[in-house]
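Expect chain and fold; thus:
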Amino acid sequence: MAEGKAQIAGYTCGPGEPLLFIAGPCVIENESITLEIAQFLAEFARAQQIRLIFKASFDKANRTSLHSFRGPGLAEGLRILSRVKETTGLPITTDIHEPAQALPVGEVCDLIQIPAFLCRQTDLLVAAAQTGKPVHVKKGQFLAPWDMRFVVEKLRSAGCRDILVGERGTFFGYGRLVNDMQAIPILHEIGVPVIFDATHSVQQPGGQGGRSGGNRGMVAPLARAAVAVGADGVFFETHPRPDDALSDGPNMVPLSELPALIQTLVELRQWVLSHS
């Protein structure tokens, strides 16, 4: 694999390649709505030849409140994700929070995701790498982009060769994130593809008291900016009815609006590549 690129489920992601999209609901609410979202995304991806990986979490272990909905758990979540893969043909990903989750997730998923808050957890990174699956690790909201080289070194030392690094904003004061677009070319210097997490970048942690808020109106402008400066892929959380979603509703893109945004980003990526 060429420097700076990664192979995930037959897709090559990195400089010079078409955009890779990772999309799906924040959390698995139930089997029905998860399949509804996945089928919509699969039909769109096939029709427009979009490189897309389906994402949904089986457990949201870092919810603001103890009483917030977390998901169906590991066993039921992986069963539903397996159904998504069998039904739609889409590659799938989910995040892990504990080293013991890596092996069962690696047996089902095409890509393992490491949450931003856990990006420095050595045992978690090593366990993910040892599955032999590609790993998408999000840059912590508390880290400078150049410090992600140490995270990538941990994964590489444990045997992972296909690594994606996600940019999802940096803490700014209380309850707000900001995006420094310089982070994308800086992360490229580590020699890995860079994914821009457009929906978590507009999150307002704890912004609604016991829940996180968000500003989904800023998702599209930030996504366009990230692609313009060289992001190799974009991560979106999406839901048919975001205001009724059980997690991260304020920053999710309405499912019906996502295809037009993706098409815009595909065209922008083509322009960037043709002028670089």
The chain has eight helices and 15 strands.
